[in-house]
Amino acid sequence: MQIKRTRLILLLLAGIITLTFVAAACSSSSPPPSRPTAQPTVLSAADKAAMEQKAMEAKAMEDKAMAEKAMMAKLPDQQFAAHFVDSNPKHAATLAQVPGAITLNFNFTLSDASTITVTRDGTQVTSGKPILSSNKLTMTTTVPSTGGNGTYIVDYKACWPDNSCHIGKFAFTVGS
Amino acid sequence: MYRRARWVSATVVAVIALLLASCGPDTRAATTTPSTGSLPAQQVAAHYVDSAPVHGKTFALAPDKVLINFDFSLAEPSTITMTVDGKLLQIGAPTISGPNSLHLTSTLPANAGDGLCVVQYTACWPDKSCHGGQFAFAVDSKAKSTYLDVTGKSEVVIEMKELKFQPARISVSKGTKVTWINREAVVHFVNTDPHPSHNNLPGFNSLDLKEGQIYSYTFNQAGEWAYHCSAHFPQGMVGSVIVQ
Question: Does B13 lie at the interface with A, CB-CB under 8 angstroms?
């Protein structure tokens, strides 16, 4: 009986240890930040005011960085259709106002089946057949000037002479 | 009491196994054992666009490289492995290239030989997640006898008519200038494989060719260069040039 109980305890212990190792391997654990040790100091009123000013400025900068980070986080990753060369606006650009047109350049002949769809913050702004250049290497769509500030996502379908198509995506922001 | 302990232990072991299985990248496709003797099915990873060699094609000459195109930026540790008739082939380390890191390439040895070639790849993304895929092609040096031998000529003409390249398969010498001429009232193209990336032999690409228009390319790189008409690829308008 005593031996059985010992084996039971050993088995459970082995299980717990292994689980601990697995959990450690699967999670990217980082050590907790060390707490700064408090230093007793005596500050003059001017020093205190300067420190408060600095703290406010640092907080404002931090808020701005977080807002920018949040804006960038909203942008999807760029996806490239075959033969994509570049676009105007470029992926991740920040514009002061709504661009009149969105242009995509390719290095192979596009077919009429190609499409561009533009959404701003999830609402469709424009969709459908773009205008193809005479050499069929560029497709352009217009964007209404009333589009407003926000995150614009451009989903396009580049189609080839055999009418096979490949999708791509990029995004830009309007406004700060 | 002892039975319960065994049951608890077994449960703990099962949970550990599940946890271990869920760790790390998805390499299921990359570890799939290909069946030899018949062409295995193509497995397509996320963001895969196309590849050279094209899945399912047969070549008279072993290709000089494997090229896989994606529509999303690749990252380390993307991998390529290749077997010939089930035996692992030593190939070059995979490289990620292109302006947006969309191409994954490995060079192949010149002595790869004939056989059924199965390429397995793992495409990894900037967030370090990975997806596996697979495609296959065959090398049969005996097929070379079916290519029109025009070696020794400095210039060769291929006509495009009846939705075909005529002749479709030729052998030329290094430095030969090949000219394609469109002989019918539909637009044709001359584009290096694969479709639609057209980047196995960069520069070997025409835009649309109307009736009577020509396109020329001088082959200076030895190997077998498969090509196609991008408008009539689905109808089987394909060709191949062996350069020696």
Answer: yes
DSSP string, B116-134: EEEEEEEEE-TTS-EEEEE
Per-residue tens of pLDDT for chain A, all 176 residues: 455 666 666 666 665 665 555 444 434 333 444 444 445 556 778 888 888 888 888 877 777 666 555 555 578 999 999 999 999 999 999 999 999 999 999 999 999 999 999 999 999 998 889 999 999 999 999 999 888 899 999 999 999 998 899 999 999 999 96
- Check A162 against B207: CB less than 8 A apart: no
- Cβ neighbors of A7 (< 8 A, separation 6 or more) are B2, B5
Q: Could you tell me how many CB contacts below 8 A there are between chain A and chain B?
A: 94
Q: Give B9's contacts in chain A (Cβ within 8 Å).
A: 11-12, 15
Task: Residue B102: name the closest of B134, B132, B72 by CA.
Answer: B72
Q: Are A161 and B189 in contact (CB under 8 A)?
A: yes
